[in-house]
Amino acid sequence: MHGGSPVDMRRRHASAACPCPPPHAAGAPPGFLGHPLFAAAAAACIVAACIVVYSKVRRSRKGGRATAVATAPPPPGRGGGWWWAAVETLSFVAANGSGRGFYHFVHARHRRYGGPCFRAPLFGATHVFVSSPGAARHLLSDAGFAKRYVRTVADLLGEHSLLCAASHARHRALRRAIAPLFAAAPTAAFAAAFDALARRLVLDWSSRHSSASPPAAVVVLDAALGITFDAICDMLVCTLPHGKKAQLQRDVLAVTQAMLAFPLRLPGTRFYRGLHARKRIMDVLSQEIASRRRENNGSHQHPRNKDFLQSLLDRSQSDSGECEEQEEEALTDEQILDNILTLIIAGQVTTATAITWMVKYLADNRDIQETLRSVQLELASNKHHDSPLTLQHLNTMDFAYKVVKESLRMATIVSWFPRVALEDCQVAGFHIKKGWIVNVDARSLHYDPTVYDNPTVFDPSRFDKDIKPYSFLVFGAGGRTCLGMNLAKIMMLIFLHRLVTTFRWEMADDDPSLEKWAMFPRLKNGCPIRLTPIGPHQENASYNGD
Question: Strands (DSSP E) along 155-237, which ranges?
Fold first, then answer.
């Protein structure tokens, strides 16, 4: 609208109605209207009028947005009454305790309500599940949402865990402190260490195959959990003796099994066992921290074993004269303990589960397995069968990487990403109330036929072309994208290359049932496979990097 603001219009009308007073005679004292206090008062009135008008306009606009949010319908689903909260929570727990997995609860409600969005009262909070790229972009990049896992996950990982940091500032601080673990040099060293473990595993399977008649099946999940734990643990805390490492691995499994348990702190329950397993983990790590501090007290010698725990301790014990940025990134002991546990779970359990599904998908799709083997053998050479794989080698494995990505899409190890609404808002056209937990349903998105053609078919070639933004969420997106995604890719590529260039395999048990109480969906039978060596001239082939 032209012609100026309401304030300007009033001022012009006043000027036209009231002619200016005549100038004062020389030497005469000024009248009241010419007094400096009057000028100041008039200016103050004008400023006040502008503020009032601006405030009304702002309230009007904000009220319009609030009206739009309020008039949007809530997502379909159960209400928040105590009865439905109990029914839905028990249904969720029952699904997690069955062979169908907890996602059966989510899938059943997607079918019941139709569309990409529904709500359900779970564990004392209203949860909304939404599965569209647009909603994912909104939720994962909007500062109006904070990360929020169910209370059981936060209790088991610890309030200082990177995964449970609600505020953006706190998350950024923890992320800066942990980021050095994933720098180029540690990543290259990790790749070499994991490759050595994978080669040792393949040699062990080869020797067992040649000595057994008939050869026994091997369980992929058990093997993958073993070598991923050894690699991650040595990277984080390399000085733990074998006995403590074995107990630590058992306790980590107990913690993950309790993450989606009913939160009963009663002896005999899974949640109670998980809490005690967490306490044992904290005790072992606390003892390790105390031991290192005693050994290094007053000494400036470089530690013999420079793992990630030691780097965190060095930073936390830095002198006050060091730079302010480094001091801000120093972690307390409680933060170190919670995040070491988080990194073990995120690095070992999720990656081992992904490896297991990848092997199963290739067993079910023998033509793709053979194509992959042909490609990888072209990259291998008998002349360099003892050569370790490097990051440069992995970067040339284009087809293998597409197999990894397709395996991650179909498995969707992390089924959804939770965010809590910090104020009333709209998501996907639905009214979301402050405090509701909105979950980006990655699994539903990965199987959406409007996003992926034939989504139930294992087809690595779908990654020959670019994927739509926010439609491939295996590692999250936005400012909270998984820090360790490159380590996961490295482990999957190395395991895949060593396996496919040494053996053919098929499933020894086709039971599709899922493991009960697992935080991440995995086969109850652990994916047992029968191995067939591809030939003595090709056995133990490695990448030819020359």
Answer: 218-219
pTM confidence score: 0.82
CB 310 within 8 A of CB 292: yes
Could you read off the pLDDT of 27-76 as tens digits, one per residue? Answer: 434 443 444 444 544 555 565 555 544 555 455 444 444 555 668 999 99
User: What secondary structure letter does DSSP report for 519?
Assistant: S
Integer Cα distance of 353 and 483 in angstroms: 18
First to last CA, the chain: 72
Backbone angles phi, psi at 237, to 5 degrees: -140, 90
Which parts of 365-428 fold into alpha helices (H)? 366-378, 391-394, 398-411
Residues 263/156, Cβ–Cβ less than 8 Å: no
**In what helix (H) or strand (E) does residue 78 lie, and over which residues does it extend?**
none
Instruction: Say if strands 218-219 and 416-421 run parallel, antiparallel, or are unpaired.
Output: unpaired
Spatial distance between the Cα atoms of 320 and 121, rounded to a whole number of angstroms: 49
Give the H or E element holding residue 128.
strand 125-130
pLDDT per position as a tens digit, 118-169: 999 998 899 999 999 999 999 998 878 988 888 899 999 999 999 888 788 8
Question: How far from the centroid of its chain's Cα atoms is residue 205's Cα?
Answer: 33
336, β-bridge pairs: none
Cα–Cα–Cα angle for 78, 79, 85, rounded to 5 degrees = 80
| Dist CA 455 CA 422 (whole Å) | 34
- Pairing verdict, β 437-441 and 416-421: antiparallel
**What does each C-alpha distance from 283 to 246, 250, 334, 413 come to in angstroms?**
15, 14, 12, 29
444 in Cβ contact with 129 (< 8 Å): yes
Q: Which residues pair with 118 in a beta bridge?
A: 129
Phi, psi of 200 (to 5 degrees): -65, -40
